[in-house]
């Protein structure tokens, strides 16, 4: 038994909340995870995890051993990161979670650059619109828009900002006309987008001389997926308010028309977040540095 590898697997099982999810994030068969844990418990002579059909939980001995394992693994990473050899370079599996639109517009188009820079890193990229629990899902870092809610257990690095753009298909404008100001929006169909946090449609926010103005957007179809949302706009089902980096190419090609170009919206933040540890692994640091450069190099045409 490779005790160090078994410790890594044990920590991942606890963080992921189960054997199956740990196996997925480690990219190994579930049987490998199960066998490693059994061999580790046999070697230590204690039960580390209480197992049921629905969940796992740490025993008293397991909780103590878990903290010790994390400290040992962190110390090993810290020592290895000080050397220029392979141990100090970015390598191994990197688990990143983001939204589909961010992956499509920022990460995937430049992913070949990352692979050339760090050939020893195997990227496991997942896409969700909800905010992942890094420890439960076994994720190393996430990229999200908006103001981070958790600043106690997570470190945050700003990647860029973008603006919201109200737009519509030419067919919609031809049929319903073009709103001339914010008040005019009440006369139009506004496609709604469901918040992954509240489960309710997100209001459109605008900056005015009297402060911020919020408009309810639920007079048209209501969706919970960015691609479906933009498609509703393209098909002329109503006005949409989308990120500039998403709709810029569609406006440039004439598929969508920008509405109310003189009205400003609060800038939106894009951040990369990762667990607040004592130190950062070379692999996570490499991805964060690459992301900062990649996002700063990306310019919208609007």
Strand content: 15-25%
What's the mean pLDDT score? 86
Provide a count of the helices.
11
Unreliable parts = none
Strand tally = 14
Gyration radius, in Å:
23 Å
Shape: elongated
Largest beta-sheet characterization:
5 strands, mixed
Helicity, as a percent range: 25-40%
Could you give the distance between the termini? 57 Å
Oligomer: single chain
Order of helices and strands: HHHEEHEHHEHEEEHEEEEHEHEEH
Helix/strand/pairing category: alpha/beta
Strand order of the largest sheet: 4-3-5-14-6
SSE inventory with pairings:
Layout: H1 3-16, H2 19-26, H3 30-44, E1 49-51, E2 56-58, H4 60-80, E3 92-98, H5 100-107, H6 111-117, E4 121-127, H7 134-137, E5 141-145, E6 154-162, E7 164-168, H8 170-176, E8 192-193, E9 204-208, E10 211-215, E11 222-223, H9 226-234, E12 240-243, H10 244-252, E13 257-259, E14 268-275, H11 282-297
Parallel strand pairs: 3-4, 3-5, 8-11
Antiparallel strand pairs: 1-2, 5-14, 6-14, 7-12, 7-13, 9-10
Helix pairs in contact: 1-2, 1-3, 1-4, 2-3
Question: Keywords for this structure?
Answer:
alpha/beta; 23% strand; elongated; five-stranded mixed beta sheet; single chain; 302 residues
What this model shows, in words?
This protein is 39% helix and 23% strand. It is an alpha/beta fold. The strands form 5 sheets. It has a 5-stranded mixed β-sheet. Strands 12-7-13 form a 3-stranded antiparallel β-sheet. A two-stranded antiparallel ribbon has the order 1-2. Strand 9 (204-208) and strand 10 form a beta hairpin. Helix 1 (3-16) crosses helix 2 (19-26), helix 1 (3-16) crosses helix 4 and helix 2 packs across helix 3. The radius of gyration is 23 Å and the shape is elongated. The mean pLDDT is 86.
